[in-house]
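Today's session is about reading a structure prediction critically. Students often jump straight to the picture, but the first step is always the sequence itself: look for stretches that repeat, for charged clusters, for runs of hydrophobic residues. Only then move on to the predicted structure, which in these notes is written as discrete structure tokens rather than atom positions. Here is the chain we will use throughout the hour.
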Amino acid sequence: MSLSKKQSVTSRIIFNYLLHHKFKILLALIMMTISAAATGLHAWLVRPALDEVLIKGNKEMLFLIPIAIIIVTLIKGLATYTHSYQMSKVAHAIIAKLQTQMFQKLMYLNMKFYNDSKSGNLISRLINDTYYLRLAIVKSVTGIIKDVLVIIFLLGNMFYQSWTLTLFAFFAFPLALWPIRKIGKSIRKITYTIQSEIAVFSNVLAESIKGIKQVKSYTKENYEKDRAFKTIDFIKKYFTKSAYISNRLSPLMEFIGSLAIALSIYAGGIFVLNETMTTGQFMSFLVSLLLAYQPVKALGNLNISVQEGLAGAERIFKLLDTSNTNMEEVSEKEDIKLDGNISLSNVSFSYDKKTVLNDINMNIPKNRKVAIVGLSGSGKSTIANLIARFYDNYKGDIKIGSKNIRQIHLKDLRENISIVTQETILFNDTIANNIRYGKLSASDKEIENVANLAGITDFSETLEKKLETIIGESGIKLSGGQRQRVAIARAIIKDAPILILDEATSSLDNITEKAIYKTIKDLMKNKTILIIAHRLSTIEDSDVIYVINSGKIDSCGTHEELLNNSDIYKKLQLRENLENEF
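Below is the predicted structure for this chain, in token form.
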């Protein structure tokens, strides 16, 4: 990582986040100064304790010095508590702000970004990387400032007692600067790798747990174990390497500290014997040196925490700096109603240089039922994705009424479209709340009515808590067909003028599917319906059926017309007849 990049990350944390809490930091700084001064005062009090009390026998000082030590200790304790609490508040506020910004960014990144990203990596940045940064903020601001202040006050007392002895004691400490910096740079690089590998492990873990049914059905437990163990072993290796490098610092600082103390005792002893320094002065100096050793050592270790935090910050800012080309348009909606014809004119779309749609021209009349059929991989679902503007990098024009959808605010466009996909996504909540997701203001009565229309009541009545039953992550406690009914109910209650069903009933049996479509037809009489179908029997009454083949429109017409004119449609009909026989 270049120095300029390092400065960029550090300056962003300071100017964009830390300075917003300048008054809390100022209060903490004042408290740190008081705490550090109290430490220096403790060391200074050693001199009168020895010289005035033990050597001269001053009874007044015998009474005053213990009281002074207690008062200074209480003041130091209160100041230490205040600055630690204030800096913790600052750190938690900054991390909360970063997590808020990252989550907001994630909510408005486009589908291409998600297709190219791994969920575990994104989750790791919100949780793991912010953890390291939180520690770094608390330790760096509190630790660096406080420890430096403590060293300054103790150093001041040492110079006050004997500037000659102070120079003897501290000549060795500059030797530690180079290894502290070198070790810090190495730790930052290793920590970045560790955090990246933890993100990989999060992906492996999420995929294995979410796909546990597939893991078990294909007896791939050992494969998943090997995959996870390899990542765990990699993380262990880098943590071990980190410990190998960082733990060198402690013995190095121990040696430098002991060298300084040994020289001070030797030189101080000579000064006392020559009577150029009193015993009290020497002991006050020695206590200051011993007290200074800990913050000096802490500053060396602190650099490791700071580098770990900066490594986390780099990954956080990498997400926050995701190019605007990956962002969806964020703007205030105008609350418009779209109920006109949907038309696709010369629409072509490619993904990763692979052509998915090629020169599509299609008309979906207002308040009509239009179906799209075709072989798997022909591009049917892509049409639905383009109408909802999940992808914007298509050629041609898509209009609703007279409005090009690129000129319609995304929120307005999607408020006017209900989509139910084959991949049913439900939340770990109640059945009722999963339905209510389509319309948050829906009353319990509306939820019950829609649940009844979508055939949910048929199975929910058998559950102990009925519609208030928690359905588990991704609706795992429900069958595939039951999950699809909940998703359809959610789309129905949204009451949008355009309904897109993308193989939304593939998990339902023929009888239930026909019942659901009858309900949809009754409820959506004055709405535009686009069905991407896997069974032709459910779309026979469609006003228009488009047959897609290899990204192009092969033919269109009614069910009867296509049976006479389309070889692909005939093939699909024949396949369905054979499936029904078996």
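Discussion point for the tutorial: The beta strands are 342-351, 354-364, 369-374, 395-400, 403-404, 417-421, 498-502, 528-532, 544-549, 552-557.
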